Amino acid sequence: MPTSMPPIPPLEIVRYYDTSLTSTNAKNLLFLGDGFAQNDGDLFDSAVEQITRRIFEGNNPPFSFREIRNKFIVYKAFIPSTTSGISCASSIDNQGRPTESNTGDRLTEKNSALGLQYIGKNSRVITQKTNDELLIPKIIQRLTHPHEKHTNSAVPQCWERPIPSPTMTPYLGKDYGLVVVLINDDLHGGSTLVHPQSTNSTYPYFATAVSLGRKNFFNLVINPSSNLIDHDPASSTRKWWNQTASIVLHELGHSSFSLGDEYEEFSTQSIAASIGIDIANTSNYFSTVQCWRNLVTAEDILDIEHIMVDPAKLDNLKWNKAQLYPGSSKGLISQRVLDYLKGSIPDLPPLPLYIRDITTCMSDKLDSESKFPPETLWTKLSNQQWKNNNRTADLIGLYEGGGGYGCGIYRPAGRCKMRESSLSDSFDFSKRDLRSTDFCFVCMYLIVEQIDPSVLQELDRYYLDPEGR
Q1: Is the pLDDT of residue 389 over 60?
Q2: Is residue 445 within 8 Å of residue 456, measured between CB atoms?
């Protein structure tokens, strides 16, 4: 049964930074919550504040959302659920851990306000329940905004699905994807949410959902009204703000900035098949990454017949941008690295790139030299300062593995928030420290270019150039 439409509260504006902005000239970021009972309102407010501070105030890394925070207005709307927590579509074992088996116990279904649930392997994916797919879009449409009367109806429109038409207003879809749904539950998880009416089949995401919990099991209880197994989120343990903020940024990378996952996940054909990926179908094998701006396939860069980099294709590489900003002498990828990848540096063997069959590609025993630029690349192209700061993985080039696949997919850098979103909660987010994982230079460039191109010159100060420019 679909969740009934909950009462819609006024949209509350949270002006942390530049108070001169209006919703017309800002990027508008909306926080909603699911699984928050009426008495969880303080927890929701605290979560929005803690996460927002970590996104926009942290000094780590050298360049981050801090430099573009004055382009954002943050909004929030607290929509209480009847009870705490959301549903889980998977069976669970007697320890409260989700299982892939259908023979275990089932938790009592939660009637949460936004109709979200855990699904998938280990239940770490969050999605809408069947028949509840339009609930969040309808709630967004009905939000009101009393703080800017002249834009009372326009603000919600900025998060709505853009529909091209002659009467389309500048607001419609302006900030599509900048919607974060915080989940009050114990199980770790984060996902993008698909708009059921999207006309873009390769890029249908309109929001993200991120859990405040960090456990791999539920706190099991017996529901007194039904005498069935239920779970009760332990709200008092919500303290993983660094980690949660990092995952929010990772998921916004998908929903708002068209950035794909840069990690390997499908280590076997059976794991891929369990979530609907047919890796035996080579056309399907590459199709999932075509829409992402930070990933390319082997077909995009290789001369398949001779199994080598095709210089002409490399010239059209997504992150082979000639100028970082008007007047810049640098591109997103260094000319020295391009020469190396094309095999045109006499004293340096070119990067070994291979075309493998499916069985070999899914093996966990791939030669590390084939998955990452070899040590000779750092020896020839890196300067000592990079090595002293452990920044060799930040060199922009071609790194194999991404989009869930171990090979055949290439990403721009060795580390990036789109590859690893973890951030220790013992970490002092207010201090500069290169140990944490943030967006690589290419992904940060694409984000800044979309939000405020005038800041690209400031971003250039943190560009890592093997030629020392």
Answers
A1: no
A2: yes
| Confidence label for 445 from pLDDT (cuts 50, 70 and 90) | very high
Please report the pLDDT score of residue 169 as a whole number.
75
CA distance 46 to 240: 12
Does one domain contain both 88 and 206? Answer: yes
For 273, phi then psi, to 5°, come to -65, -30
3 state SS of 118? strand
Q: Do 340 and 236 share a structural domain?
A: no
CB count, 10 Å around CB of 94?
Answer: 9
Pair (232, 275) in one structural domain: no
Are 101 and 42 within one domain? yes
Give the sheet arrangement for strand 399-402, strand by strand. 296-297, 405-411, 399-402
The secondary element (H helix, E strand) that includes residue 335 is helix 335-341
Do the bridges between strand 229-231 and strand 296-297 make them parallel or antiparallel, or are there none, so unpaired?
unpaired
Range of the domain at 92: 12-255
Tell me: the pLDDT tens digits for 216-227? 888 888 877 777
Is residue 242 within 8 A of residue 424, CB to CB? The reply is yes
Q: Give Cα separations from 301 to 295, 298, 315, 413, 459 (angstroms).
A: 11, 5, 9, 16, 27
Q: Do 277 and 379 fall into the same domain?
A: yes
Asked if residues 380 and 393 have their Cβ atoms less than 8 Å apart, the reply is no
Residue 262 lies in a domain: no
In a domain, 261, yes or no: no
The answer to whether position 7 is within a domain reads no
Pairing mode, if any, of strands 116-119 and 125-128?
Answer: antiparallel
Report the helix count and the strand count for the chain, using DSSP H and E.
Answer: 15, 18
pLDDT in tens, 101-155: 776 788 888 989 999 999 876 677 899 999 999 999 999 988 877 666 555 567 8
* Overall domain count for the chain: 2
Assess whether 97 and 166 both reside in one domain: yes
Q: Please tell me whether residues 250 and 103 are part of one structural domain.
A: yes
pLDDT at 228 over 50: yes
Q: Is the pLDDT of residue 23 over 90?
A: no
- Inter-CA distances, 93 with 101, 106, 122, 219, Å: 9, 9, 12, 12
CATH number of the domain to which 177 belongs: 3.40.390
pLDDT band at 391 (very low <50, low <70, confident <90, very high): low
Return mean pLDDT, the chain.
77
412 contacts 229 by C-beta, under 8 angstroms: no
The answer to whether residue 370 is domain-embedded is yes
